[in-house]
Amino acid sequence: MIRLKVKEIAAKRKVGIGRLSRLADIDIKTLRRIYREPESANTRLETLNKLAYALRVDARDLLDYERDAQPPGLQDDDDELPEMPEKL
């Protein structure tokens, strides 16, 4: 699972949501969604880069990754990968 840590990093840096919205030039509604749903926010890389620049951190610092036992939508096939098609 990927979780965004924008809210936590902004709090550590003492940057409020309104100020971060202005610094990163991101709509306040988008930022509120990221704050409210950090696990399910479908955020563009451009937005993450803007936030990272505004917070003066590396974009990787905004992400928290924990590997899921099995991602949703994938079937358990004894951990075998599908065969690659032959090149034409």
Outline:
With about 90 residues, the chain is mainly α. It has a single domain (about 1-65), classed as Orthogonal Bundle (434 Repressor (Amino-terminal Domain)), CATH 1.10.260.40.
Detail the topology: elements first, then pairings:
Elements: E1 2-4, H1 6-12, H2 17-24, H3 28-36, H4 45-55, E2 63-65
Antiparallel strand pairs: 1-2
Characterise this structure:
- By secondary structure, the chain is mainly α.
- It has one domain: 434 Repressor (Amino-terminal Domain).
- It has 4 helices and 2 strands.
- The chain starts with a strand and ends in a 23-residue tail after the last strand.
Supply the key terms:
88 residues; mainly alpha; two-stranded antiparallel ribbon; 4 helices; single chain
Number of helices: 4
Main sheet record: 2 strands, antiparallel
CATH-defined architecture: Orthogonal Bundle
The rounded distance between the terminal residues' Cα atoms is 36 Å
CATH superfamily: lambda repressor-like DNA-binding domains
The CATH topology assignment is 434 Repressor (Amino-terminal Domain)
Share of residues in strands? 5-15%
Biggest sheet strand order reads 1-2
CATH class, please? Answer: Mainly Alpha
Give the SSE order as H and E letters. Answer: EHHHHE
